Amino acid sequence: MARWSAGRRWWLVIGSLLLLVIATTVAIYVGLYNIAADVPHTQPVYWLLETLRGRSVATRSREIVVPNDLNDPNRISKGAGEYAEMCSGCHLAPGMERTEISRGLYPRAPELRRKTDLTPAEQFWIVKHGVKMTGMPAWGVTHNDELLWDVVAFVRKLPELTPEQYESLVKNAPKHEELMKEMETGDHRQDGDHQRQ
Amino acid sequence: MRNLRFRKTPLRLVLLASFAGLPLTLAVGHEGHHVECNETAINALKADIQAMGNGEARTTASKEVEAAQQMMAKNDIGGCKSHIHSAMEATEK
To answer: What residues of chain B lie within 8 A of the CB of A38, using their CB?
Structure first.
């Protein structure tokens, strides 16, 4: 009798799991979940995706070797120009009003003038590889590692900057087109393979 | 002289039309800062709050959005707008 009960309990578990799989499949196929960017995820779904993203980035950036010259003013200056060109539209900057794209993106692009818990390695990984379903592109497709570390160096500095300092840094930064040209011709320094792929 | 006045008329019409349309253009330009009480505005604020770190500002913003929703349910649009405005301020801290 006891053995029969245990068997029934197993069938109940298997049956429930099967029902869950079928219900999930049906929910997906009938389009039950609203994927619109103007309706936020429920808190459990948001937590799940946030945790998934955080853990994935942490695991994949573990092996990255951070260059020891992230405080180099030359690097920060180059990064300022790249940031203004590639990032500020979504991630904003000191003294900048929210843009139309930053208001409509979901999940919201983090405002990088605020301090972050991310390590330089994690920031580099995100900039290089992008993040699925967030609007964050993989800049590593078009930029070499050195240029991306310049951006990380600047982003680390960003929370300390006043709007005036930001403006001045961007104004005096090398132009994006020049840096891209340097990269294509191989003139941009490639002084270290900072990361194991 | 008469001919010259006639020639200038289209220019005058263009200028008049431009100035007549100015208040409308300014109104559209200002729309980005306008506080609305509707589902879209509340959802946008909820998305902003999700992206905020834990802290006093987040708690305040969440409470204000909740209050705005309650006001909207009661059809108190003025109260709803006021809470939405407070929530927006909290998200910008």
So the answer is: 40, 43-44, 47
For tokens 């300022």, name the residue.
Answer: A80
Contact A119, A61 (CB under 8 A): yes
Over the stretch B14-43, which tens digit does the pLDDT of each residue have? 444 444 444 444 333 334 447 899 999 999
Measured CA to CA, the distance from residue B4 to residue A64 in angstroms comes to: 75
Question: How does pLDDT run across B43-87, given as a tens digit for each residue?
Answer: 999 999 999 988 999 999 999 999 999 999 999 999 999 999 999
ipTM of the complex: 0.74
What is the number of CB-based contacts under 8 A between chain A and chain B?
24
Position B9 scores a pLDDT of 57
Given phi > 0 = left and psi -120 to 50 = alpha, else beta, which region is A62? Answer: alpha
At residue A64, the 3 state secondary structure works out as: strand
